[in-house]
Amino acid sequence: MTRIISGRAGGMRLATPAGSGTRPTSDRVREALFSRLEHLEVLLGARVLDLYAGSGALGLEAASRGAVSVLLVESDKGAAKVAQQNAGALGIPGITVRHTTVQKALAAAPAQPQTLVFLDPPYELSEEALAADLAALADQQWLDREALVVVERSSRSPEPAWPEALELEGERRYGETKIWFAGPRVPDVVA
């Protein structure tokens, strides 16, 4: 069972897509991740982009905890439908579901830069494809200058290949899951 852990919709059960190849983040990992995000004070008022959204659990958890806008991007038709149903059941304004690929979504300019981005792709997504998604994210003005990018992969996966515009800020391991945190690279100041 997947559920919203905390916030306005805490305890609400989420539907999960059947047979879509999605891999829901466990409640335990989501709870640890969101505890860290709350500690970093990035949730309240956040503009969230949830790529490879699946059921929408990460983005919807952010909405429940105070994000003002959430865009869920999912290419699988069945999973996008489930994410839409979950968003409707949550009843919090500012949530949009887009049924498209990550690359197509990132090719369009955003209405405004995002402050928090989740990338939780299927484990079978290649490292090269993930690197291309991160490069597109960094190149298309999607990121606020203080944005936090969160990448979730198998603990056996290597660290993502960060584009020049992003730099690693930390990582955490939770059993079979590893999460990397990155942000926009701050240019060196020449004195």
Question: What does this molecule look like?
Answer:
- 28% of the residues lie in helices and 29% in strands.
- Strands 5-4-3-6-7-9-8 form a seven-stranded mixed sheet, with helices on one face.
- It has a single domain, classed as Rossmann fold (3-Layer(aba) Sandwich).
- It has helices spanning 27-39, 57-64, 77-90, 102-107, 127-139; strands at 2-3, 13-14, 47-51, 69-74, 95-99, 114-119, 143-154, 166-174, 177-184.
Brief summary of the model shown:
With 191 residues, this protein is α/β, with parallel strands linked by helices. It has five helices and nine strands; from the N terminus they run ββαβαβαβαβαβββ.
Structural category? alpha/beta
Taking pLDDT < 50 over at least 5 consecutive residues as the criterion, the unreliable ranges are none
The CATH class is identified as Alpha Beta
Strand content: 25-35%
Number of strands: 9
User: What is the CATH superfamily label?
Assistant: Vaccinia Virus protein VP39
Distance between the termini: 55 Å
Cross-sheet strand order for the largest sheet: 5-4-3-6-7-9-8
Cα Rg: 15 Å
Which second-level CATH architecture applies? Answer: 3-Layer(aba) Sandwich
Fold-level CATH name: Rossmann fold
Major sheet: 7 strands, mixed
Keywords: Methyltransferase, Transferase
Protein name: 16S rRNA (Guanine(966)-N(2))-methyltransferase RsmD
Organism: Pedococcus bigeumensis
Enzyme class: transferase
Summarize the SSE layout with pairings.
Layout: E1 2-3, E2 13-14, H1 27-39, E3 47-51, H2 57-64, E4 69-74, H3 77-90, E5 95-99, H4 102-107, E6 114-119, H5 127-139, E7 143-154, E8 166-174, E9 177-184
Parallel strand pairs: 3-4, 3-6, 4-5, 6-7
Antiparallel strand pairs: 1-2, 7-9, 8-9
